């Protein structure tokens, strides 16, 4: 079974359990925190994948790092994952949980890449345009890429709207060369 499928199943089980205990928001915050730690700390990511460090030591490290900051159910869940020697997929489990949470609560991630930082008016216009086609909460992730020259690129799930000057110039170049 693929890592993605295993991570999804663990995440779904955690989501079901947190819904049952009515602590979905808190567990989501825990998974966001875990995902951030895995992304930001190479040492932590290496620890998760290390076969040299035994599971007892990993459990102790998790307790020190997270016990006072996370819900009991999240800690117990991570202990179970470590006990089953699946700690190397904890980042994928956390990401899968976050995605399931967003899907359940109708939250859409929208990534907007622009040549310069967008002002509030531009952000509101983009959100309004997207809300015409999507009912739910929109979380905007902003990125700045000066190579776009101007304009923007919007990514929603697997769709992309490219209204950048650089892509328009590339298209024009291709037309002129043909």
Task: Give a short summary of the structure.
The protein has 178 residues and is of the alpha+beta class. It has eight helices and four strands, in the order ααααααβαβββα.
Word description of this protein:
This protein has 178 residues and is α+β, with helices and mostly antiparallel strands. Helices cover 60% and strands 16% of the residues. It contains 8 helices and 4 strands. It has helices at 3-20, 24-40, 42-49, 55-66, 72-83, 90-104, 120-131, 165-177, and strands spanning 107-114, 137-144, 151-156, 159-164. The protein has a 4-stranded mixed beta sheet. Helix 1 packs across helix 6 (90-104). The longest helix has 18 residues, at 3-20. It is elongated, with a radius of gyration of 21 Å. It starts with a helix and ends with a helix. The mean pLDDT is 93.
* Overall 3D form: elongated
- Number of helices, where a helix is a run of at least 4 consecutive DSSP H or I residues: 8
Helix-strand topology string: HHHHHHEHEEEH
Helix share, percent: 55-70%
Compute the CA-based radius of gyration.
Answer: 21 Å
What's the main sheet like?
A: 4 strands, mixed
Strand order of the largest sheet: 2-1-3-4
């Amino acid at each position: 079974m693929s890592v993605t499928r295993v991570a999804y199943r663990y995440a779904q089980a955690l989501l079901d359990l947190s819904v049952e205990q009515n602590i979905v928001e808190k567990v989501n915050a825990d998974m966001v925190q875990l995902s951030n730690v895995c992304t930001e700390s190479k040492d932590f990511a290496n620890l998760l994948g290390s076969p040299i460090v035994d599971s007892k030591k990993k459990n102790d490290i998790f307790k020190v790092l997270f016990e006072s900051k996370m819900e009991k159910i999240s800690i117990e869940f991570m202990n179970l994952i470590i006990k089953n020697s699946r700690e190397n997929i904890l980042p994928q489990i956390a990401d899968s949980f976050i995605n399931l949470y967003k899907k359940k609560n109708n939250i859409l991630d929208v990534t907007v890449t622009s040549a310069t930082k967008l002002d509030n008016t531009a952000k509101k216009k983009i959100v309004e345009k997207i809300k015409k086609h999507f009912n739910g909460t929109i979380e905007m992730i902003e990125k700045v890429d000066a190579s776009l020259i101007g304009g923007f690129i919007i990514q929603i799930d697997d769709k992309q709207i490219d209204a950048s000057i650089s892509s328009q110039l590339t298209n024009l170049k291709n037309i002129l060369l043909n």
